[in-house]
Amino acid sequence: MLKEFKEFAMKGNLVDIAVGFVMGAAFKQVVTSFTGGIVSPLIGLIFKSNFNDLKYVITPGIADETGKVTGEVAVLYGSFLTNVIDFIIVAFVMFMLVKGINKMKKKEESAPEAPKGPSQEELLAEIRDLLKK
Asked: Comparing C-alpha atoms, which of 76, 84, 95 is closest to residue 31?
């Protein structure tokens, strides 16, 4: 059973998927850093606040003596929008990557080879010559 699992795990497609998954996770971290460090502050300038902290308070909470708010019920739409922006960036880059790979595959496909033997014109000329006899 261990041998079968090893053969299954070492198949090319499974290894490719694993490598792609790890690279995708790393790329997600880069995009999250880009969105959190560059995009969100720029959008935050528009709203005059930290973009990730944007929220719609449904029920205000009570602040204690340290200033910590407890019991607040809020919709955290800023962090949701940040995640949507992350998704759009990752989806766009993946689309461009797949599009590039497909374009390279089309170039690799060679034109079909010409059929071996005489051409159509040569065959017609031969038939013509046989009919003349």
From this structure: 84
Residue 109 confidence (pLDDT): 63
Domain ranges of the chain: 2-109
Q: Please check the confidence at residue 108 and state whether its pLDDT lies above 70.
A: no
Query: Among 40, 36, 17, which residue's Cα sits nearest to residue 28?
Result: 36
The residues near 15 (Cβ < 8 Å, ≥ 6 apart) are: 9
| Beta strand 73-75 pairing with 69-70 | unpaired
Read off the pLDDT of residues 11-22 as tens digits, 9 standing for 90 and up: 667 777 777 888
Architecture in CATH of 2-109: Orthogonal Bundle (1.10)
